[in-house]
Amino acid sequence: MQLAATLVAVAAFFFGALPAAALDKAAVEQQFHAWIERQVWPAAKKAGVSRATFAVMDGTSLDWSLPDLVPPGSKQPASDMRQSEFGSPGRYFDEKKLAPLISLGRERLATYKDTLAAVEKRYGVPGPIVVAIWGRESGFGRVKLPNEAVRSLATLAFMGARREDFFGELVAALQILEEDHVTSDRLRSSWAGALGQPQFLPSKFLAFAVDFDGDGKRDIWNSVPDTLGSIGNYLARHGWRSGRDWGFEAEVPAGVSCALEGPDRGKPITAWEGAGVARVAGKAFPDSERKGDGFLLMPAGRHGPAFIATENFYVLKAYNESDLYALFIGHLADRMRGGKPFVAPWANVEKVNRLAVRDMQLRLEKRGIDVGGADGLVGFKTRRAIGDWQAATGLAATCFPQPAMVDKVR
Ligand SMILES: [Ca+2]
Known about the structure:
Blueprint: H1 2-15, H2 25-46, H3 51-54, E1 85-86, H4 95-111, H5 113-123, H6 127-138, E2 147-148, H7 149-159, H8 163-178, E3 188-189, H9 202-208, H10 224-237, E4 247-251, E5 267-268, H11 269-274, E6 278-279, H12 287-290, E7 293-297, E8 306-309, H13 311-316, H14 323-336, E9 352-353, H15 354-366, H16 380-392, H17 403-406
Antiparallel strand pairs: 1-9, 2-3, 4-6, 4-8, 5-7, 7-8
Bound molecules: calcium ion (CA).
Residues 211, 213, 215, 217, 219, 223, 226 line the site of calcium ion.
């Protein structure tokens, strides 16, 4: 957050936004309270929030420490994409970072064995998957949530860079207080308003949190059963298929193009086997999985491990849209069950500038190629577009951007 604040300050200097110090903060606070009454109260009332519950807003002030704020009268800071780079996905899977999550996760699997069995019975999601998400989101509830959700959300809805996304979340947070699941002083969140141990945004809480311990409250802050049940319910409601795994590391022969990646290019795992794809380390795909669909997944293209994922991999992506997040959860769950590190190494790739990637994506879009949005981030659609360009240019397809190549792709 320190870095983000510095970048905003730099952007403000170069792009003419008012430095925060020059702002009349007292005047902005006044506008904030006028906005609460004029904009937030009617929406909250319509959503069933009582005036008594809404009183929490009276004592709420703006949190000026949040990143990327755009106070009224200042200009939207320019995107900091030009200063942003990304490297190998392998850094997400550092064994030193994984080790404590694996050992603490195994302890939680033992401690909450009965609860997790009940969660799997009701929602079909295995314990290690639920516990892996719990660990990744809040360190199994050990992370102290730094913010009051209402204050953070009100600040972001009033003067955040993505104001319109947060207005509904603020109203949803007030609905949670109205329903009395937790008192306002205990409605803790991340700076971005993600609530409790599963880190649900308020709208997700309303839709997916459950009271798994039966005390009448959906308490994802203090109740482990409510936390685990809510994660299970979230995945079940997003289509988790009971009895299927998330995916398997695989060896993909050179004759199978990395550009075949993606959830829209699935085929039965037996068909991948027919094309020469095999599970690593001489293991076979489980018989129960082989007739089901598999999807090629290569987060680092030819520069790292490859996988045959199942539909459940894409259910994990409903929790967080990143391929690497979903892979992290699946891998962590495997490791808690005694699985081994990935067999294939993550190669040391050169860092790539996000702006250069975005420009490449814009050129591809102009040709009608779907890159999944020109955002400077590299999802499967961008990876396979690169692979297709490489093949058309007579190069070996790697399906991953590198600095020497991104400016040429078109
Ligand atoms: Ca409860």
